[in-house]
Amino acid sequence: MVDQLGDEFDFRIVTSDRDLGDAGPYDDVEVDRWTRCGKASVFYQTPGVAGWRALHSSLQRLHIDLVYLNSLFCSTHTLRPLIQRRFGRLAPAPVLLATRGELSPGALQLKAFKKRTFLTVAKALRLYDNVIFQASSQHEENDIRREFGDVKISVASDVPGRGEPLLDVIPQDDADTALRAVFLSRIAPKKNLLGALKMLKDVRVPLIYDIYGVIEDEAFWVECQAVIQTLPPHVQACFQGSLRPEEVNGVLAQYDFFFFPTHGENYGHVIREALAAGLPILISDQTPWRDLVAQNVGADLPLDVPEEFVAWIEAFAQLDAVQRQAMRAAAHVRGNDSQKAASDIDANRNMLYAAARNETFPSGLTTSQTASLSNFPLG
């Protein structure tokens, strides 16, 4: 969003000064002050009272047209601003809250008691009064209304990144060559790496499954490692660490397909990135990316029928190089749909302008003024 709309909006992004679980801050960043980063100004906030005091002091000097909260369950950068707003300690400004797929049935089943308690308390405190929710699809709008009823909702798909070239990678179809599948996401229950690994126990063709991402949940990763130890000899799963954004396209392009049976995504940036890199995708039916078989770019399958995932992998292994190249070309086109990208960018532009007027989109009209946005993302 910042990359595509940063020339029209003054984005001010508040985030943590460190990755989740890290003891120390990022290298080479200035903390507790605004730092220019690309088309936005970023406030890398230190933990504790000092960081909040510095942020509060800084925000007092800004004119904010819109507060954009980038998660439903983040205690620091969603719950705290909502509490401050509720009790008059945050400068009055419209609030736009993106739920990011966190209200999908699959997502709510994970840590269900904790999430239900959170929502019950937040509703009792009326933290969501006069908040505009952002849904990225009709499906997510239904999820929001199921939880919150008749609230204000704007619908706009997430802003895609810029298009990527299709790299010249020749698919292998040698029966003795192992398929190369890839997982790229946070290592957390919602992303369902554990489910993917359990499915691979039944795959009868040689396969290498490389795992990229930040380990967000150590206990969950221990479970995944236990399953990795039980995989058959012809299936290997290897953790490869995390990737920098500029590495993603080139690394993904080296694989045969993207295997991501997530419990739920409101959009799924990594799915689009995989498609843009020319990867066929094997995902769950809990995302907006549907009808993949008809588009010849992969499959979206039900999580309660794991044998369908196994069957797809084994069928994919039988395709020759020409068939796989056709799928790669179709995937690249699907991931770099310039017409849809332009429409999504325009929808987000209109959504932000409408939200700054405390209105919803698509009922809000386009304006041509510049707005200052304060964004409290999930740190």
UniProtKB/TrEMBL annotation:
One of its GO terms (molecular function) is glycosyltransferase activity. InterPro entries: Glyco_trans_1. It comes from the Bacteria. Residues 180-320 form the Glycosyl transferase family domain. Pfam families: Glycos_transf_1. This is Glycosyl transferase family 1 domain-containing protein. The lineage of its organism: Bacteria, Pseudomonadati, Pseudomonadota, Alphaproteobacteria, Sphingomonadales.
